[in-house]
Amino acid sequence: MEYRKLLGSGLDVPVMSFGTATFGGGSEFFKAWGSTDLKEAQRLISVCLDNGLNLFDTANVYSQGMSEEILGAAIEGKRDQILLSTKSTFRMGDGPNKSGSTRWNIIKECEASLRRLKTDYVDLYTMHGFDANTPVEETLRALDDLITAGKIRYIGASNFSGWHLMKSLSVSERYGWSKYVAHQAYYSLAGREFEWELMPLALDQKISTFVWSPLAGGALSGKFRRNQAPPAGSRSSQIDFVVSAKSEALHNIVDTLDEISKETGKTIPQVALNWVMHRPSVTSIVIGARNEEQLKQNFGALGWKLSAEHVAKLDKVSAVKPIYPYWHQHGDRELIPSPI
Fold first, then answer.
1. b/e code 229-263 from CB counts within 10 Å (16+ = b)
2. Alpha-carbon distance 113 to 107, whole Å?
3. N-term to C-term CA, the chain
């Protein structure tokens, strides 16, 4: 396992972290991701630790708290060996004030997560999305207070736009509050829009990127093929929010992954994961697994690096014409050099 600095801190984190949205299966939506129970979770966590993966990512909204409960029970007696990351913002229950990044909700949800995780603190606490109805100052002051209280160590954002993140960093600097040191964002060979603004921002402001869904919801697993029905039990009905399983562009990417897989002796997912983990600004990729075999397969992406030729092939086949104003900006490399 390779470890990298959580930028803006002195903390070392693994280049591969484990996402536990598969724990619980508390709704039809999350059952499609997985229904890992406590016994399975304990085994997966042991395998992770044996391979040097010590960062576990969850969220209050995953199966409405079940993921946190299972993770908390599974790590009992191992808390000092691991780093815990959880998130809040999205709705947790009916009625007013049950969602958002207000002081009221952040403190309430943080306390609830700590109880479910059976811990006194979390290492990284992330706003799962940007709350445009709450002043940024209110959100950041509440998070800073939780850091002062010792209930969280570092703070992160997720799924923010460039201006959301930049404004938040500016407010933290203005008042001397703790700033976001991580941005958890979607990025994959099938979705490279992250490169247009969020990657340059991360590099400029020294923000660590934690990539969620580096396999595009399983679309880059090699199971989705041109003119073939999606495999039984796959998440085909859910991946359209990141990429269409019927996309010709996706199939072209998978064809190239298949070619490189044969040349390197690695699996298609291992090639796709390796490409993401070596991109600029990426500190860690969040992997998920329904079972031990899937998890161990993911570890095959570690300890090697794609050749420049292979990277160039993947870059070319996955390239997407930027929308405005990025295509205009990219027209003059003297003014805005590419981060890649």
1. ebeeebbbeebeebbebebeebbebbebbeebbee
2. 10
3. 24
Cα–Cα distances in angstroms (integers) from residue 105 to residues 108, 126, 137, 171, in the given order: 5, 13, 14, 20
What average pLDDT does the segment 53-60 reach? 98
Mode of pairing for the β-strands spanning 12-14 and 3-5: antiparallel
Structure confidence at residue 54 as a pLDDT band (50, 70, 90): very high
31: three-class secondary structure by DSSP: helix
Enter the tokens of residue 82: 């691991």
Instruction: List the CATH code of the domain at 3-331.
Output: 3.20.20.100
Residue 225: per-residue pLDDT: 81
Asked whether the predicted pLDDT for residue 42 surpasses 60, the reply is yes
**Catalytic-role residue among 62, 180, 186, 187:** 62
Q: In the annotation, is 121 catalytic?
A: no
Give which of 241, 261, 240, 239 is closest to 314, Cα–Cα.
261
228-245, pLDDT tens digit by residue? 766 665 555 556 667 776
Structure tokens at 301: 């992406």
Among 223, 248, 222, 217, CA closest to 235: 217
Give the closest residue to 301 by CA, choosing from 263, 272, 262.
Answer: 272
Q: Which of 129-143, 202-216, 243-257 is the least confident region? A: 243-257
